[in-house]
């Protein structure tokens, strides 16, 4: 009687969380590399660990292997003297006797589920070229035919990435690229205390039931149904343009694979849509090294959760337009009329400073300084129609800012929810995004105060003694965007 298939869980966070906790046990400052390497494997992709020797790169690979039930593991260190037999298996003597060129692949890379290849770029170009098809298509050219391989994920390690055509093509096969350095000064003491469990590569406690092949397939099917919303696609498009402007080429294949990684990340957390905050994973897929990844993360953190409609620079220009109008209206003067409605004149010659300035400017041989001229000394006054028009326009601005503040509050809550529920969130990015949204919130609060002060300024303009006055043209400013 055939064994009964295990039930496939629907609560993926509950299924994965204890596995992750067990895999991380004994590791120091390796949470993000471990989790992203596992996420890459769940997505059917490969991970490249970049860093100096002795930074637990091989341990990470062995831990990822433990997450999969009945997974065959293969590990090899490559050198410039490595021969194909070390990776792909020895030649079959019987096949050679029958004029066939075939390898015994059992126990070697073409037979592995999870593999760790140390110093992946040290091998010669012939081996790297052979690996390209295996990593991408999961097929191995064995003799006259192609052998299907059960490979789930390869974790590669290198101290540095060489710059040549073959290495570049091979480098592109690793979707996730992670820099792994020595532990910080703060983590050194813990490293020394937990060195034994780290050295063994095995979790200190019993690993919860590993994922079966059926579960991996089920998760892949769930991920395929996860939606990529329009806002996520817009952010990805903008990121692609920004990278291209900087001269950073990212292949179309890599963008497609990134989309699938994002879907898998959402599926693992029980969501049917990718969140814009999931783009925190993008830097590790579109940038080549830690420096570039930091720049991409900074670019994303400054934009995610902030709509162009309520970006502080745009609103600042709008507020400044009202402030400039208020300043102009406060400084405006009117012609001074007497009680009979006639313009008042004054002998400017009686105002010594004005007379001297005028005489110096035009000469005073004929007594021009003593001529009667119009006086502009009276400050302009405004009627109710003018002031209501101005305050109504500012009220619209205040309403917009208040709406934007509510939207921003919702985005900050969404970020907090994502951070609380995410299995993969990079803590550094979360801190950057929080700081960016806090900065926008502070800017909106300040603009709200300035707009209210401008409104109060318009209300306190000098008023006409009688009459409603006239309604002014609206203050010209950038249009509001929805």
Element layout with pairings:
Elements: H1 12-24, H2 31-42, E1 47-50, H3 57-66, E2 73-77, H4 84-88, H5 93-97, E3 114-118, H6 125-137, E4 139-142, E5 145-148, E6 153-158, H7 165-171, E7 176-179, H8 185-193, H9 195-200, H10 213-224, H11 230-245, H12 252-268, H13 283-286, H14 290-301, H15 312-331, E8 333-334, E9 345-347, H16 352-362, E10 372-374, E11 378-379, H17 384-421, H18 427-459
Parallel strand pairs: 1-6, 1-7, 2-3, 3-6
Antiparallel strand pairs: 4-5, 8-11, 9-10
Helix pairs in contact: 2-3, 6-7, 10-12, 14-18, 15-18, 17-18
SSE sequence, one letter per element: HHEHEHHEHEEEHEHHHHHHHHEEHEEHH
Highest CATH level, the class of the largest domain: Alpha Beta
**Which structural class do the helices and strands define?**
alpha/beta
**CATH homologous superfamily name of the largest domain?**
P-loop containing nucleotide triphosphate hydrolases
Main sheet summary: 5 strands, parallel
The helix tally amounts to 18
Strand order of the largest sheet: 2-3-6-1-7
Amount of beta strand? 5-15%
Overall structural domain count: 3
**CATH architecture classification name of the largest domain:** 3-Layer(aba) Sandwich
Q: What is the CATH topology descriptor of the largest domain?
A: Rossmann fold
Helix-residue proportion: 40-55%
Mean pLDDT figure: 86
Radius of gyration using CA atoms only: 35 Å
Q: What is the end-to-end distance?
A: 63 Å
3D shape: elongated
Low-confidence stretches: 1-8, 339-343, 347-355
Quick one: how many beta strands? 11
Pfam family, one: bpMoxR
Organism: Thauera propionica
InterPro entries: AAA+_ATPase, MoxR, P-loop_NTPase, RavA-like_AAA_lid, RavA_ATPases
Coiled coil: 387-414
């Amino acid at each position: 009687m055939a064994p009964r298939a295990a039930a496939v869980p629907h609560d993926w966070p509950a299924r994965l969380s204890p596995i992750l906790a067990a895999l991380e046990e004994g590791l120091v400052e390796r949470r993000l590399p471990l989790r992203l390497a596992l996420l890459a494997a769940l997505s059917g992709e490969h991970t490249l660990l970049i860093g100096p020797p002795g930074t637990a790169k091989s341990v990470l690979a062995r831990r990822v292997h433990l997450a999969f039930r009945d997974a065959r593991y293969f590990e090899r260190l490559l050198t410039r003297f490595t021969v194909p037999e070390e990776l792909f298996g020895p030649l079959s003597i019987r096949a050679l006797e029958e004029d066939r060129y075939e390898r015994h692949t059992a126990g070697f890379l073409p037979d592995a589920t999870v593999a760790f290849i140390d110093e992946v770029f040290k091998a010669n170009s012939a081996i790297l070229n052979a690996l390209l098809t295996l990593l991408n298509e999961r097929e191995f050219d064995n003799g006259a035919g192609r052998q299907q391989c059960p490979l789930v994920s390869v974790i590669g390690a290198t101290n540095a990435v060489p710059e040549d055509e073959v290495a570049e093509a091979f480098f592109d096969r690793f979707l996730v690229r992670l820099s792994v350095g020595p532990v910080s000064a703060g983590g050194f003491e813990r490293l020394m205390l937990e060195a034994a469990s780290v050295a063994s590569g095995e979790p200190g406690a019993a690993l919860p039931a590993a994922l079966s092949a059926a579960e991996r397939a089920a998760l892949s099917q769930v991920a395929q149904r996860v939606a990529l919303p329009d806002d996520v696609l817009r952010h990805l498009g903008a990121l692609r343009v920004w990278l291209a402007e900087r001269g950073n080429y990212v292949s179309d294949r890599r963008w497609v694979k990134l989309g699938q990684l994002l879907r898998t990340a959402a599926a693992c957390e029980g969501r049917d849509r990718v969140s814009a905050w999931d783009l925190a994973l993008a830097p590790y897929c579109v940038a080549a090294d830690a420096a570039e990844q930091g720049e991409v993360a900074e670019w994303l953190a400054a934009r995610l959760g902030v709509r162009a409609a309520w970006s502080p620079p745009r609103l600042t220009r709008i507020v400044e337009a009202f402030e400039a109008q208020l300043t102009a209206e406060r400084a405006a003067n009117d012609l001074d009329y007497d009680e009979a409605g006639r313009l008042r004149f004054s002998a400017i010659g009686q105002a010594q400073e004005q007379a001297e300035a005028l005489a110096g400017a035009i000469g005073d041989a004929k007594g021009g300084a003593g001529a009667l001229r119009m006086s502009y000394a009276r400050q302009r006054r405004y009627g109710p129609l003018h002031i209501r028009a101005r305050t109504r326009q500012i009220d619209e601005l205040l309403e917009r800012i208040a709406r934007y503040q509510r939207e921003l509050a919702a985005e900050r809550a969404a970020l907090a929810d994502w951070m609380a529920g995410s299995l993969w969130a990079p803590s550094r990015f979360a801190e950057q995004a929080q700081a960016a949204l806090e900065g926008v919130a502070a800017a909106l609060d300040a603009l709200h105060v300035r707009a209210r002060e401008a409104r109060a300024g318009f209300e306190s303009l000098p008023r006409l003694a009688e009459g409603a006055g006239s309604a002014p043209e609206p203050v010209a400013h950038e249009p509001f965007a929805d």
